[in-house]
Design brief:
Helix 2 crosses helix 4. The chain is globular and about 40 Å long. It has a single domain, classed as Glutaredoxin. It is built from 4 helices and 7 strands, in the order E-E-E-H-E-H-E-H-E-E-H. The termini are close together. By secondary structure, it is of the alpha/beta class.
């Protein structure tokens, strides 16, 4: 975030994709969506396909960490539990999502994903950092935080 704290953050619901306005101080209070009443943060990566992906990266005021993966990829499957573990730590200050490049090849192509798994960090709709290769939970957490602070 910038040095000035905004009055409200836009948080996209992982269930119904409604954009919610939330005071930053309420991030840690297990907020719920104003439309569907479900938790805005689940501590689990959100699976996003093409149509939903753009809304989440473009409309969210918190950084969005993306794991580009495919079901046939051994290193991707190895990293899955580590990524889920990292989500528990990084939320609610990050939105943690997964994009299956087999199911959404347009997203992989749009962001020039050439190897998987690849982590990418988005802020305000644009990619600000990228990390290819399978890594453990502590490495994911440290990389995401450092990449976010560099902005």
């Amino acid at each position: 975030m910038t040095s000035t704290t905004p009055d409200a953050l836009h948080i996209v619901c992982p269930h119904c994709d409604t954009v919610n306005r939330l005071p930053p101080a309420r991030l840690a209070e297990q907020p719920t969506c104003g439309k569907c009443q479900k938790a805005l943060f689940t501590g689990q990566p959100v699976d996003l396909a093409s149509a939903r992906f753009l809304k989440h990266i473009e409309r969210s005021d918190i950084p969005v960490l993306v794991d580009f993966w495919a079901p046939w990829c051994g290193p991707c499957r190895t990293m899955t539990p580590f990524y889920a573990q990292a989500a528990q730590t990084l939320e609610p200050h990050f939105r943690v999502v997964k994009v299956n490049t087999e199911a959404s090849p347009d997203i992989g192509s749009r962001y020039n994903i050439r190897s998987i798994p690849t982590l990418a960090l988005f802020r305000n709709g644009r990619e600000v950092a990228r990390q290819p290769g399978a890594v453990d939970a502590n490495t994911i957490i440290a990389w995401a935080r450092k990449a976010n602070q560099a902005q």
